[in-house]
Amino acid sequence: MLAVLNLRGQLCLFSKDGSELRRTIFILDGLVFDDSILYHTHFSNRFGNPERHFNNSVAVRGATVYILGPSFLTVSRLLPWKEWIEALKRAGDWMGAMDMAMKLYDGHTQGVVDLPRTLDSIREAIMPYLVELLLSYIGYVSEYISIALSNHTGKGGAADGLIDADRSLLTEREEQYARVGGVAVEFCVHIGRNDILFDTVFSKFVAAQSGGMFLEVLEPYMLKDMLGSLPPQIMQALVEHYSGKGWLQRVEQCILHMDISSLDFNQVVRLCREHGLYGALIYLFNQGLSDFRTPLEELLSVIQNATRKDATWYVILLPEGVELNLPIITLLIDEIIVHIMFSSY
Asked: Vacuolar protein sorting-associated protein 8 central domain spans which residues (predicted)?
């Protein structure tokens, strides 16, 4: 790497290929460049004018640059990766710290020192700290929210102590936890630690009485195929939470995006039967067991037990690419013509 000090008081760091990695202004507030670094004018240029020379005012030792000023010494050095992230945390830039951590996990280590050479070794070395960083962030935000509510309620932050004029704080609280949940999901998915997400992180949200909010945060990531599976206890909690809100169709859409091989098949099938998620049930048997007959028999049983009005149309939504080889089935049950149509959403 190459460090260049320019006349604007900027210390620029370049990689071997010439890419600029970082630019830092080292001039103190209230000073101009001429006052921030010593120079001499013993030499003149070809026009006879004095030329400023800084060669005795800048020194480099290892990864540290020393810049001599008229009344102070500026020391600038490349920070080890952990110190760099900690510096961002102390400055309150948690998002910058977590972004830096994910870049290190991906192997973008230019501009930092004290890391192994291979990507696998880097990930192994920094993984414990990444988990600690995420949990520290969640704890920091939770404490901030608790203090904010406490200042308004005077009752230790109890939500039921809010007066009507402060009900907006509850909405703000949920929004804060939703943002934290989104950061936690993306961070854990990025570093491949879903076990931390569904264990420690979920427990923290439950302790903060925001477990339902955490489950709702998972939905868009499931629909984007970023979360292909859920542990049994999370799946159970998701179905129960969405069922209580009347969002069973949204649960069904989530199931249609899951990797069946990583699910507790029997549990998910049981939940689908209990809540009438027949589209998801067909998807599970079709994709998981290549079984077209069992879900069809269950549908026919449901139709036979339904009223004449309810048995007229059944529309089953399946994800794109799923083929049942039975696009439309027309049946005669108790003199009622029943059409079962399979379509994509």
From this structure: 213-307
Token representation of residue 238: 């998701």
d(CA 170, CA 158): 11
Q: State the Cα–Cα distance between residues 102 and 312, nearest whole angstrom.
A: 53
> What's the N-to-C CA distance of the chain in angstroms?
53
Residue 299 confidence (pLDDT) above 90: no
Q: Greater confidence, 255 or 305?
A: 255
| Strand ranges of the sheet holding 20-25, from the earlier edge strand across to the other edge | 2-5, 10-14, 20-25
**Distance of alpha carbon 126 from alpha carbon 136, whole angstroms:** 15
The yes or no reply on domain 2-78 and CATH 2.40.50 is: no
**Kind of pairing, strands 10-14 and 20-25?**
antiparallel
**Phi then psi dihedrals of residue 279, to 5 deg:** -60, -45
Dihedral sign from CA coordinates of 154, 156, 158, 159: positive
pTM of the model as a whole: 0.71
Cα separation, 302 vs 296, in Å, equals: 10
Q: Annotate 104-172 with three-state secondary structure.
A: HHCCCCCCCECCCCCHHHHHHHHHHHHHHHHHHHHHHHHHHHHHHHHHHHCCCCCHHHCCHHHCHHHHH
The per-residue b/e assignment along 12-26, b for 16 or more CB within 10 angstroms, e otherwise, is ebbeeeeeeeeeeeb
State residue 339's pLDDT score.
Answer: 43
